[in-house]
Specification:
Elements lengths: L8 E2 L3 E5 L5 H8 L2 H4 L10 H14 L2 E6 L5 E11 L4 E9 L8 H13 L5 E7 L3 H10 L2 E9 L5 E10 H13 L1
Parallel strand pairs: 5-6
Antiparallel strand pairs: 1-2, 2-3, 3-4, 4-5, 6-8, 7-8
């Protein structure tokens, strides 16, 4: 089975649609808030030229989504699949950002649940790279049930090398979490 990197995914809260070049303007409207990026590896992504470079990399990944609030169709942010490893049966999920009005709500969890459910149809392990200073994302990933397994310096394209925490979620863990949640 071949991993489909950009399906349209949706549930009652969010809709993930394959990112297109024509989405730049609408996505940048969300991304232009400096507070979104204050804990991310490149805190200047709110600037148009810096975001444009980030956006180009996102498109080249072949696994990126624009994330919309399902009822209103409002653009909430973006996320993507990357680093598919067929031998290890793993993929990474990340480069995620959401508008501040969606922070601390169930929207991030709903988005990641869609992405994890889809990924585990094809792989056994999902990896998350989270900046060492990105405490909000660390908490969000830990709430999903992912486990920190390592700390590494990562050189993002066009950016300086930065310390990242590596989190992992495997199919067995995810199934157990889903079973537990369905019983509650």
């Amino acid at each position: 089975m071949k991993f489909e990197l950009q399906p349209t995914l949706e549930n009652e809260l969010v809709k993930l649609v394959p990112l297109k070049e024509s989405d730049f303007k609408i996505l940048y409207l969300t991304a232009s808030d400096p507070l979104i990026w204050e804990q991310h590896p490149d805190r200047f992504r709110y600037k148009r030229d810096v975001f444009h470079k980030y956006f180009e990399g996102t498109l080249k990944s072949g696994g990126a989504f624009i994330v919309k609030e399902k009822k209103s169709d409002e653009v909430m942010g973006s996320s993507r699949y990357y680093e598919l490893d067929s031998d290890k049966k793993s993929i990474a999920i990340g480069y995620t950002f959401l508008a501040r009005k969606y922070w601390g709500t169930t929207y991030n969890k709903a988005m990641k649940q869609l992405m994890l459910d889809h990924a585990f149809k094809f792989v056994d392990t999902v990896i998350f790279h989270v900046g060492a200073k990105n405490h909000r994302s660390q908490k969000a990933i830990e709430k999903l049930g992912a486990v920190k397994i390592d700390e590494v310096e990562i050189n993002y394209p066009g950016e300086d090398e930065r310390l990242n925490f590596i989190y992992e979620m495997n199919k067995i863990m995810w199934t157990e979490i889903q079973n537990k949640n369905s019983k509650e």
